[in-house]
Please model this.
Amino acid sequence: MWVVVITLAIISAAFGLLLGYSAIRFKVEGDPVVDQIDALLPQTQCGQCTYAGCRPYAEAIAKGEADINQCPPGGEAVIIALADLLDMEVKPLSAEHGVEKETATVVYIDEQTCIGCTLCIQACPVDAILGAAKQMHTVIESECTGCNLCIPPCPVDCIYVKPVEPTLQTWIWEQPIGGFAAPKAT
Amino acid sequence: MTEYALILLSTILVNNFVLVKFLGLCPFMGVSRKLETAMGMALATTFVLTLSSVLSYLVNHYILAPLEIEYMRTIMFILVIAVVVQFTEMVVHKTSPLLYNVLGIFLPLITTNCAVLGVALLNVQVQNNFIQSLFYGFGAAVGFSLVLILFSAMRERIAAADVPEIFQGTSIALITAGIMSLAFMGFAGLIKV
Model:
């Protein structure tokens, strides 16, 4: 009987060592596909894709549960990039998840009307709203991703959307319109 | 050389492990819904089956037989198979994450694929030597892959076909498998191994 016990123990230990070595040798650092998809997403964490954020959406795409056309903030550019990465067909943005915005927008809080209820702070996925209970809230414009998730919870409707105004740091020359066409006479 | 060709022909067609010996039916039904998964599964199983067939021969011949503890064969073979499957899983996870996701739970479940243990035990029963074990395992794997891929291709077409309501789903798949099995029984008597 001892022969059996010892033999089994030795063989099991040998196999254990082999597997332990190969676990180190073939170590996988996370799921590279999820990371690649996540890198392409706009990271607005807006939840318009019906997932909790960009990372869960990336995982769902990698598993094949979600389609690639559910990201309105990313729009067509992200769909094309995802289709390229995953070798899938490019398809138009799914209408049920929202429409692509023409220009970047942020929200601002009408501070006269704000009652300090903190509901919009809880709704904000990127912590871009500053404030406390019964205190006036305000939006940190540089952090706002324009997802508009804070608008529905507001009980007094004091949150408005506005386009991002170019500042001295972000202003660039406009692209020439119409290629090399002659300028119109004024 | 004819001997090895006969072993291959025997395991692939005449004594096909799935359709004639009825071993390994759960992956046969489980992963045959899509052709791509079936191909991935076929590849992984081929690798595991060939390797475990050879390894279990070595374990039986060089460890169990000299120590006269052949009655521990089943446990040892299961251990060997589990190790090979774990190793395959690590390699697949590293080299092809997409295939790893597609195969999902079926990859570790190769351990419980009865065809794998069946090949290891039959190797001992028919007293194959090292090379014969290699061909026996490989042939069994190719036979498994062949019917799995044929069956999944058929199931893809059946999914689009106009099947009577009571036969839809698994029942038509089982009927298809039965008819395939009948067809493979037709190879019986082709050669004697």
Notes: The longest strand of chain A covers residues 105-109. The helical segments of chain A are 2-25, 32-40, 54-63, 75-86, 119-123.
